[in-house]
User: Fold this.
Amino acid sequence: MMISKNISFSLTEYKSVEELNKEDEELVTAAKKAAETAYAPYSKFKVGAAVRLDNSVIVKGSNIENAAFPSGICAERNALSNTASNYPDSKPVAIAVVAFTEDGITKEPVSPCGNCRQVIAEEEFRNNINIRVILCGANKIQVIEKGGDLLPLQFSRNYLKISSR
Ligand SMILES: [Zn+2]
Assistant:
């Protein structure tokens, strides 16, 4: 028998960073700062990400492009790889993302690509924690309490288990 299902998630929208709590506002500021270190000569699209750890340390990452395009890396994955490598005993609890074109910060929030969503989901899974995602544009800020919600039906380690059959 066929069953139709809907998958949905909730997010909160704000009009300006001043409406965020102090910690999130601080994380957005760090993400903007991170974007200044982006290396984006090809897309001219500079992205900054900042991850807050459960020990309150903030780790920044930016997009680093490459002439061999697939060798580039997104800001979100750069920041999360950095936290996992340098703070293995701490857990990421939030990530803020902001992007700039040559005209300045994007009006709308920019959402992580599929690869980064998969990495956020894995970090949540392995740390047994929800990662709060804060997407910041000039006119709108979106907050998603569990990053994995951005990737329904995500691939997970559960698929890698060897079948007993
Ligand atoms: Zn990405």
